[in-house]
Amino acid sequence: MDCIFCQIIAGDIPSYKVYEDDHVYAFLDISQVTEGHTLVVPKQHVKNLYDLDEKTATHVFRAVPPIANALKRAFAPIGLNLINNTERPHQSVDHFHVHLLPRYEQDDLGIRFTNNQASHEQEDYLAILEKIKENL
Ligand code: AMP
Ligand code: ZN
């Protein structure tokens, strides 16, 4: 078993445990990109979002709001980002995990949402929609 998160869940590698139930394990991200940065993972080894089955997804996401609210109460952030990296956008551990990142006025996390609305016509949205629906 060379998955680092499976080893954390098994207790073979130490972690700062935030929460645990039968299906889910949450712990402090060692990097603490922002204060309170927490990872929520299924106990079952699943590589990434593409492989997440309905039950496992339910278990993981059911645990997220209570932890988010604990972070809110603990650190009074200005808000919070829920992030998952699947494959190229920086997936460094191949065991599905969501990052809970409390946000602060002066933090280092550079996430930028550019508003591209003006450069899209109705036909562009419809073409995008069609591509997705063909593959659902
Ligand atoms: P990602 O880049 O989305 O795959 O996230 C993996 C995260 O796991 C990174 O933010 C790492 O800091 C974190 N990480 C790696 N090893 C450990 C560890 N032993 N304990 C806690 N967090 C870890
Ligand atoms: Zn694993």
Summarize the structure.
The protein has 136 residues and is of the alpha+beta class. It has helices at residues 4-10, 54-75, 122-135, and strands spanning 17-20, 24-28, 38-42, 79-83, 98-103.
Description:
This protein is an alpha+beta fold. The chain contains three helices and five strands, in the order αβββαββα. It has one domain (4-109): HIT-like (HIT family, subunit A, 2-Layer Sandwich). It has helices at 4-10, 54-75, 122-135, and strands at 17-20, 24-28, 38-42, 79-83, 98-103. The two termini are 33 Å apart. The model has no long low-confidence stretch (mean pLDDT 96). The site of zinc ion has 5 residues, from helix 1.
Explain the layout of strands and helices.
Layout: H1 4-10, E1 17-20, E2 24-28, E3 38-42, H2 54-75, E4 79-83, E5 98-103, H3 122-135
Antiparallel strand pairs: 1-2, 2-3, 3-5, 4-5
The structure holds adenosine monophosphate and zinc ion (ZN).
Zinc ion binds at residues 3, 5-6, 45, 95.
Keywords:
alpha+beta; HIT family, subunit A; 5-stranded antiparallel sheet; 5 strands; binds adenosine monophosphate
